[in-house]
Design goal:
The chain has about 280 residues and is α/β, with parallel strands linked by helices. The protein has 2 domains: about 150 residues, Rossmann fold; about 120 residues, 3-Layer(aba) Sandwich (Rossmann fold). About 30% of the residues lie in helices and about 30% in strands. It has 8 helices and 15 strands. Strands 11-10-9-12-13-14-15 form a 7-stranded mixed sheet. Helix 4 packs across helix 5. The relative contact order is 0.13.
Length: about 280
C-alpha cells in the first residue's frame, strides 16, 4: 500500500499508476500556533506500507515523522520510507566542535518505525551508515542523462570533482563524453573554471549535479563556459531546491534548467517514478 505524503503528491500519483497499488492519502493542516496535524484517510491495518515523502522544506520533514507514527499506530504490518530527497545529509560528521550530526539525528528518528529506507542521490552515501535498517540509495543520473539527450549534448559536465562519479554514470548510460570542472587561479582576484581535459568551444554542454540550492556554482560555471566558447549550456540536477530567486537567475545564464520530481517544482521535467517502482518491484 502506498501512502501519499503531502510533500510528494505528483510523484505518488505517478507511482500508483505504474505499480497499480492501492494508495492512502494524508489529511494535513496547520493550527494557528504553527503546529502540524496529519491523519491517514484510509485503513492501513495489516498492510505493508510504503510512505513517499520528500523532506524539503523543513515542514515536510516534520510531517514525515508524524505520518510514520500514524501508520504505526494504525496497525500497519510494516513500513518502508522512501524519501526522494533526504535533507540534512550534508551534515554527516563533525566539522567543528560542538556541532550536531544532523544526518545521524534524522536517520535514528526515521528508523524508529521503519523497516527499510530508500532515497535518491544522497549527497554522500556515508549517511546510510547511520541507519541500522536496510537502506538503498538510488541514482537518478541515468534518467537525467536520457533527458539531456534531447539537447544533443557533446559533453556532460560535473561542476566539481566531487560529482564526477555521478556524471560518469550518466554519460555511460547516454554514450556521451564527460568531464568535470576545475578551478584555476589566474591572479589574486581571478579564478577560472574550465573542464579538466576537454574543450567546450562550439559545443553543447549539459552540467549535472545532485543538488541546486542557491545556484552560485552553477551560475558561475555557465558564465565561464560561454566565455570559453560553448554554443549552448544547459543545467540539470536531481534535487531542485532553488532557494529564493535562484531559478530566475540561473535561467538567465543557461539555455535551459531542469530537475527531477524528488522535490516537485515548475521545472520537474524528469520523473523518478520508474526508478522507485523498479526498486520496489525488485524488493517485493
Amino acid at each position: 500500500m502506498l501512502v501519499k505524503g503531502p510533500g510528494s503528491p505528483a510523484l505518488c500519483d505517478r507511482l500508483a499508476e505504474r505499480l497499480d497499488v492501492h494508495m492512502v492519502g494524508v489529511e494535513q493542516k496547520i493550527f494557528p500556533d504553527g503546529e502540524h496535524y496529519v491523519r491517514l484517510t484510509g485503513d492501513v491495518k495489516g498492510e505493508d506500507c510504503v510512505l513517499v515523502q520528500s523532506t524539503y522544506p523543513n515542514e515536510n520533514l516534520l510531517e514525515l515523522f508524524l505520518i510514520q507514527d500514524a501508520i504505526f499506530e494504525n496497525g500497519a504490518s510494516s513500513l518502508t520510507v522512501m524519501a526522494p530527497y533526504f535533507s540534512y545529509a550534508r551534515q554527516d560528521k563533525l566539522f567543528r566542535e560542538g556541532e550536531a550530526v544532523s544526518a545521524r539525528v534524522f536517520a535514528r528518528l526515521i528508523e524508529t518505525h521503519a523497516r527499510s529506507f530508500l532515497s535518491i542521490d544522497l549527497h554522500t552515501e556515508r549517511v546510510l551508515d547511520f541507519f541500522s535498517i536496510p537502506t538503498v540509495n538510488l541514482s537518478a543520473m541515468p534518467l537525467l542523462a536520457d533527458h539531456s539527450c534531447m539537447y544533443e549534448p557533446d559533453i556532460l559536465l560535473s561542476p566539481d570533482e566531487g560529482g564526477k562519479d555521478r556524471v560518469r554514470l550518466a554519460a555511460g548510460e547516454a554514450g556521451i563524453g564527460w568531464d568535470y570542472l576545475v578551478k584555476k587561479r589566474i591572479d589574486g582576484e581571478t579564478v577560472r573554471m574550465e573542464p579538466k581535459g576537454m574543450k567546450v568551444e562550439g559545443k553543447t554542454v549539459v552540467i549535472l549535479d545532485d543538488i541546486i540550492s542557491t545556484g552560485g556554482t552553477m551560475i558561475q560555471a555557465a558564465r565561464q563556459l560561454f566565455e570559453q566558447g560553448a554554443e549552448e549550456v544547459h543545467a540539470g540536477c536531481t534535487h531542485g531546491l532553488f532557494v529564493g530567486d535562484t531559478l530566475q537567475r540561473l535561467s538567465r545564464e543557461c539555455d535551459t534548467v531542469f530537475c527531477t520530481d524528488t522535490v516537485e517544482c515548475e521545472i520537474s521535467k524528469v520523473t523518478v517514478a520508474p526508478l522507485i517502482s523498479r526498486e520496489l518491484f525488485m524488493t517485493k
